Amino acid sequence: MLPWARALRAAGLLRSAGAGAGAGAQRRAPRRERCGPGQRRWAAGPDLRHFLRAAGGEPPPGLELEPEPGPEPEPGPAPGSGRVYMETYGCQMNVNDTEIAWAILQKSGYTRTKRLDEADVILLVTCSIREKAEQTIWNRLRHLGALKARRQQQAGPPLRIGILGCMAERLKEKILHREKLVDIVAGPDAYRDLPRLLAVAESGQQAANVLLSLDETYADILPVQTSAGGTTAFVSIMRGCDNMCSYCIVPFTRGRERSRPIASILQEVRMLSDQGVKEVTLLGQNVNSFRDMSEMQFQSVAAPGLSRGFNTVYRAKPGGLRFAHLLDQVSRIDPEMRIRFTSPHPKDFPDEVLQLIQERHNICKQLHLPAQSGSTRVLEAMRRGYTREAYLELVHHVRDSIPGVSLSSDFIAGFCGETEEDHQQTVSLLQEVRYNVGFLFAYSMREKTRAFHRLQDDVPAEVKQRRLQELITVFREEAARANEAMVGQCQLVLVEGPSKRSALELCGRNDGNIKVVFPDAEVEDAAGNQAPARAQPGDYVLVKVTSASSQTLRGVPLHRTALSRAAACH
Ligand code: 5AD
Ligand code: SF4
């Protein structure tokens, strides 16, 4: 492309005829959007026509221009002056995205409010993974629509509504056209464009940017941490997914896999440590596929092997600094800070990662190993890249390498073609592995996925639900047994705050990420340096477990201690 044309495209003033801008398009620079002939313009500003007029020229053949602008709309309130109310739906990535989006808006002058009734802007950070998640957001939009209409009737300040994240990416056209009440739509890679989109919306127009990027990681945006008590924080290390599991919409809504440069991750973790944060969870759609290509000298490093018996739909990618290196560096920052990561793919667990987890006192002995099904036939249809046997071999290897490791998993009930026999295989996998934590879902067909195009969603809804209930029952029985094995043991608990049920109790998590509740009483300091005191959020307390259910451990506090000190005692 000619340099002038590249500059114009980067400025959002130009597009090639025929180049669509729908979900899934992979481009870098945010660009102005239109929804089709005769639609409103979404953004204001100079356009190519101004440029060509100034240069005395006509557009070159093959280039399509925006139509002549209509009369300028009435000026809205000054950009950047509004109060923003944000709501988050879906996974932890969305919690982190909310913080990134907010950091960007805060920088351009917006303030945040927790009160819906005083908001000038309402932003929903949305999820598309299952039909039910989207339905919840449609319902919420209708409620917000009524709120907006009431404001208008009462001649109150205008209310702008924005849809951010995966649903924005998937359903831009539908949201803008059918839900006229939505003012802005911003996909997961378009948050930097939010101030501009909001400025357009403030002038009374709809604005959208759903362009996916090959390299956006928001590396330089330090999210504003909002977790309760400031004890725990999430740090995004990579975005997107290349795995293309046949049921999953994520590669289409969040785009290609890309990793954030290690230097900026370490900087963020150091900053959190300085702020007193005691637990960091490294986040990504496939955290352990992390591959930082930003440093030249590591670009030709060979790809590490996959877990034994695993394969991928794409060729192993060489080069870059890998997850083991990142984990090593992050865990050295603060010996009093716990490190977790989610969500990994079971294919990327080389021995060096397992060894590191085993060796470092502050990397939690807790792994998420999403199995999805216990039937090799179904796993093949899901394109997961492993058999039941390979998965079980990995589980045994993980348990041998990290004694006492706590395991969690995701499962889908009623995937295309799943028979009763396949379902029983999943039941038996749950029994055989005995996970501590489980996330179980009924299959929900998503457009664009391989399953949508190639497979039949042939398990009736009531059968999916029945199978899901059976999986939940079996999972709970097994988790209760796994947790009961901890009764009588001492667990190191990072205190998060008061328990939800009783102000007389504190709640926190053990190393395995299981909730632990205990009385809020005065406890000794293990080192004997301080007088007995009640534990505070951010303290580590050794708790003797007295009872257990499938989800919670209960116990009595023994003493306050330090993470490094407690590790030395074991
Ligand atoms: N239907 C049901 N569950 C799904 N998941 C992903 N896509 C679907 C779908 N179409 C589940 C998987 C994944 C988790 C995040 O959500 O179990 O690991
Ligand atoms: Fe979806 Fe599979 Fe990627 Fe996970 S690994 S986000 S399930 S495509």
Automatic annotation (TrEMBL):
<dbReference type="InterPro" id="IPR058240">
    <property type="entry name" value="rSAM_sf"/>
</dbReference>
<dbReference type="GO" id="GO:0005739">
    <property type="term" value="C:mitochondrion"/>
</dbReference>
<dbReference type="InterPro" id="IPR020612">
    <property type="entry name" value="Methylthiotransferase_CS"/>
</dbReference>
<keyword id="KW-0411">Iron-sulfur</keyword>
<keyword id="KW-0479">Metal-binding</keyword>
<comment type="similarity">
    <text>Belongs to the methylthiotransferase family. MiaB subfamily.</text>
</comment>
<dbReference type="InterPro" id="IPR023404">
    <property type="entry name" value="rSAM_horseshoe"/>
</dbReference>
<dbReference type="GO" id="GO:0051246">
    <property type="term" value="P:regulation of protein metabolic process"/>
</dbReference>
<dbReference type="InterPro" id="IPR038135">
    <property type="entry name" value="Methylthiotransferase_N_sf"/>
</dbReference>
<dbReference type="GO" id="GO:0051539">
    <property type="term" value="F:4 iron, 4 sulfur cluster binding"/>
</dbReference>
<dbReference type="InterPro" id="IPR006638">
    <property type="entry name" value="Elp3/MiaA/NifB-like_rSAM"/>
</dbReference>
<feature type="region of interest" description="Disordered">
    <location>
        <begin position="18"/>
        <end position="84"/>
    </location>
</feature>
<dbReference type="GO" id="GO:0046872">
    <property type="term" value="F:metal ion binding"/>
</dbReference>
<keyword id="KW-0004">4Fe-4S</keyword>
<dbReference type="Pfam" id="PF01938">
    <property type="entry name" value="TRAM"/>
</dbReference>
<dbReference type="InterPro" id="IPR007197">
    <property type="entry name" value="rSAM"/>
</dbReference>
<protein>
    <recommendedName>
        <fullName>Mitochondrial tRNA methylthiotransferase CDK5RAP1</fullName>
        <ecNumber>2.8.4.3</ecNumber>
    </recommendedName>
</protein>
<dbReference type="GO" id="GO:0035597">
    <property type="term" value="F:tRNA-2-methylthio-N(6)-dimethylallyladenosine(37) synthase activity"/>
</dbReference>
<dbReference type="InterPro" id="IPR006463">
    <property type="entry name" value="MiaB_methiolase"/>
</dbReference>
<dbReference type="GO" id="GO:0005829">
    <property type="term" value="C:cytosol"/>
</dbReference>
<keyword id="KW-0949">S-adenosyl-L-methionine</keyword>
<dbReference type="Pfam" id="PF04055">
    <property type="entry name" value="Radical_SAM"/>
</dbReference>
<dbReference type="InterPro" id="IPR013848">
    <property type="entry name" value="Methylthiotransferase_N"/>
</dbReference>
<dbReference type="Pfam" id="PF00919">
    <property type="entry name" value="UPF0004"/>
</dbReference>
<dbReference type="InterPro" id="IPR005839">
    <property type="entry name" value="Methylthiotransferase"/>
</dbReference>
<keyword id="KW-0408">Iron</keyword>
<dbReference type="InterPro" id="IPR002792">
    <property type="entry name" value="TRAM_dom"/>
</dbReference>
